[in-house]
Amino acid sequence: MRVKQGLMVSTAILSMLLATGQGFADSGWGDPSGNGPDTSERVPSDVDQTVDWSDLSVTLDRDGTLHIPGGKVSSPESISMIDAAYGSVKKIIIEGPLVVRGSAHEMFAGLKDLTAIEGLNNLDTAGVTSMSEMFYGDEKLTSLDLSSLNTTNVLSMRNMFALNYALEDLNIANFDTKNVASMHGMFDCDYVLKAVDVSKFDTTNVLDMANMFYENNALTTLDVSGFNTAKVLDMSAMFIGDDNLTSLDVSGFDTAKVTNMESMFLGLGKLKELDVSGFDTTNVTDMRDMFNMYGTEGQLTSLDVSGFDTANVMHMGGMFAGNRQVKTIDVSHFDTSQVKDMYMMFGDDQSLTDLDLSNFNTAKVETMDDMFLQNYALEKVDLSTFDTSNVLSMYDMFLNANQLKQIKLGTNFKSLEHTALSEINQTGYSGKWQKVNQAGQGVSSKLWSSAELVNDYQAPLGAGTYVWQPTEKLATVTVKYQDEHGKPIHDDQVIHGQTGTVYTVAPEKIAGYVFDKSSGSTKGSFTDEDQQVVLTYRADQITEPSKNTNYEQPALTQVNSSSTPTLNEALTKESASEAKAETNDVLPMTGMLHAAWLQFVGVTMLLGVAVRFWFKK
User: Count of CB atoms within 10 A of residue 113's CB?
Assistant: First the structure.
């Protein structure tokens, strides 16, 4: 994956260099068959040499210093011709006033060993109209003080300081740029340039700003807020690769005439905000990689393109790729009827959750590779208006978009082949896709794994909305048992059931407690939300029967005739005793006690009869 990412960024940058930057192709440096010098073979010199250069005699001494006397030159040839023919030029000294007329194109260009130029204050460039590639490709030049350079009549500054790989300090604060029409690639690939003051540039007549600050990696600040861009036609790759810029104010840019914005902000991974809400994009035809932060951490959290007019745009590949912090991009109004490529359009937008593509017209689109690559947070996408009839490649369209739970496909979405739709591995889902209606209800008994859906889907019969099939969720009722003080007296009981089915909760018998009351519904239906029932018990107050301490067993007394009771008297006495026991709140006699008492009374009566019989004798 990383190799793929790196290749895509490199390809984007290389394509810009080849397509919009003239660079080496213009100058022909190192190409024996081109217009530039062949530097492959140099004649070493052990002596000072006098050389003719544009009607002036100049001296190249043995240590590589070129001495240029004062004089006048008209559209002078490049000093690199001397470098190629006579030996390496390491230093240039302009020893007197040097008047230059016409063009200074490539005047000091292509001197790969040049480290310094002295006497630049002797240059009179009031009559110069072109400074294009004037210092182009001076790879070892570390500083330039051009504070005295007269640029009043200059029309072109194209690639003026391009490929100055070692240039750290550049003084151009006094440049008069009111007549300049081209600033294309002006600071292209000046990798270590720490600062460049263009805040006073008059860009009223500039037509071309493409590649202007291309790969200025060391820049941390850049003030272009005062730029007048009313006439600019090309802003492609204008700030590409300026990956240490933390702020950039382009809110005042007039882009009404701009036709090309390809890679304009590509790779600005440390930008935390970017206001392009006022951009007029009516005439723009190319927005490829415009906001592509792929391969960076992407610090932007929002991007307002809601006002963009895209009716004429033909290229949107990689347009928003790599914006890892952006959660929503409003493209709902985009007119994509002319667009030919959408590859990587939203690729690696890892936080993207909201994306309305329901208005997209893709009838002319040919590539959709990696379109939603690594959209980790995106859960649904509406592709119902997509027409893939002319799409040639959809490789990895959904690769690693592993939260994508809903896809809406239209009758013109021909196939899902090679889209790398992620398998469903989350809990709560069956691992299958199901086709549903607008109410979310299944309309088919057939289910698909991601691989099966990719293989089986065919328009128009397959058109519709596909969602992850959820597993059946059981509803729950939790029953809690507590005493009157709220203290748990039994383990909770959890009852499960299907939503809508009926449940009943009955109190459990708990030793030492008696059920008292309940809170919550002890009878009802399971719902989507968990429910709770609380059963409250009180301690059991049952007391063991008390002993009858007031009951006295009748005592055996001495028997005589006068005290011997009759049967009626005995029964009457027994009844009285029972009444007394009840009155004294004591338990009544048991059956055994009652029987013993009757036996006692019977024996007593018999003894009494026997005694009376004895005395009558």
Answer: 16
Nearest to 286 by CA among 322, 250, 319, 261: 261
CA atoms of 360 and 304, how far apart (whole Å): 18
Q: Give the number of other Cβ atoms within 10 Å of residue 57's Cβ.
A: 12
Looking up tokens 């859960």 gives: 379
CA distance 147 to 375: 50
The torsion region of residue 360 among left (phi > 0), alpha (psi -120 to 50) and beta comes to: beta
Measured N-to-C along each axis, helices 591-616 and 567-583 cross at an angle, to the nearest 10 degrees, of 150
- In the numeric block, the tokens 């029964």 are attached to 571
Mean pLDDT of 111-130: 98
Question: Within 10 Å of residue 559's Cβ, how many Cβ atoms?
Answer: 12
The residue count of the chain comes to 617
Peptide bond into 460 cis (omega under 30): yes
- From 235, 244, 195, select the one nearest 215 (Cα to Cα): 244
487 and 594 assigned to the same domain:
no
| Same domain, residue pair 69 and 161 | yes
State pTM to two decimals: 0.73
* Secondary structure tally for the chain: helices H, strands E: 6, 20
The answer to whether the beta carbons of residues 127 and 100 sit under 8 Å apart is yes
How confident is residue 475, by pLDDT bands cut at 50, 70 and 90?
Answer: confident
Q: How confident is the model at residue 438 (pLDDT cuts 50, 70, 90)?
A: confident
Q: How far apart are the C-alpha atoms of 9 and 215, rounded to whole Å?
A: 13
For residue 105, the model assigns a pLDDT of 98
Q: Please tell me which residue, 597 or 71, carries the higher pLDDT value.
A: 71
Do 604 and 480 lie in one domain? The reply is no
In total, how many domains does the chain have?
A: 3
Domain CATH number, residue 497: 3.10.20.320
The residue segments making up the domain with residue 573 are 567-608
Q: Is 574 exposed, middle or buried (0-12, 13-18, 19+ CB in 10 A)?
A: middle
Domain membership of residue 311 (yes or no) is: no
Nearest alpha-carbon partner for 236 in 11, 9, 12: 12
Q: Which segments of 441-526 are extended strands (E)?
A: 464-470, 475-483, 488-497, 502-504, 513-519, 523-525
| Rama region for 453: left / alpha / beta (φ>0; ψ in -120 to 50; rest) | alpha
The answer to whether residue 292 sits within a structural domain is: no
